[in-house]
Amino acid sequence: LTLFVSISPPVNAQAPARDGFFIGFGVGAGSLGFEDDSEREVGGAGYFKIGGALSDKVLLGAEGGGWSKEMREGGGSGTVTFSSLNAVFYGYLDPTGGFFIKSGLGVAVLGAEANFGDWSYSESENGVSFTAGAGYDIGFGGRFGLTPHVDYHYAGFEDGRINLIRIGLGFNWY
């Protein structure tokens, strides 16, 4: 029994196999800040990603993400939303490990809706998006990974810029 335990490989927390197609989603929270404004807003965040592995160290894909915050003040309420769709590179420094870095470029939409009694107003603006982040795939079941991550998103619009720091937990299939 002692010999068996000493030569058995660990069965938990092994990085998932990364080859071929991948798909994933995640939820968390994010802190959004507007250019030239020291206040930040915290809201719910999520993402969906899909793509393919070029090797066990390099993945390319598309990642759509969103952030939303509902606000109430006085007699009114409103919602601010940010969404992006990026082409993303994921790089694993060690092909047998779970740590990765990511970077991507794409498009973004910033939206706002205000409601005051029976009156409502909404507006949105399109722009460009950049994302960078890091995470760790905790493998289970060979092809699945539970992934804590932190991301930074920057987007430029005609009327200004925003940045979003997002933390969350993802579930991915490789």
Taken as a percent bin, the fraction of beta residues is: over 45%
Give the integer mean of the pLDDT values. Answer: 91
Tally of discrete structural domains:
1
The rounded Rg comes to 20 Å
Unreliable spans are: 2-6, 8-12
Distance between the termini: 34 Å
Largest sheet properties? 8 strands, antiparallel, barrel
Number of helices: 1
CATH structural class: Mainly Beta
Q: Provide the helix percentage.
A: under 10%
Structural class: mainly beta
| The CATH architecture | Beta Barrel
How many beta-strand runs?
9
SSE run: HEEEEEEEEE
Q: What would the CATH topology be?
A: Porin
Strand order of the largest sheet: 1-2-3-4-5-6-8-9
Principal-axis shape: elongated
Q: Any overview of this molecule?
A:
- The protein is mainly beta and 174 residues long.
- It has a single domain (14-173), classed as Porin (Beta Barrel), CATH 2.40.160.20.
- The protein is built from 1 helix and 9 strands.
- It has an 8-stranded antiparallel barrel.
- The chain is elongated and about 55 Å long.
Short description:
The chain is about 5% helix and about 75% strand. With about 170 residues, the chain is mainly beta.
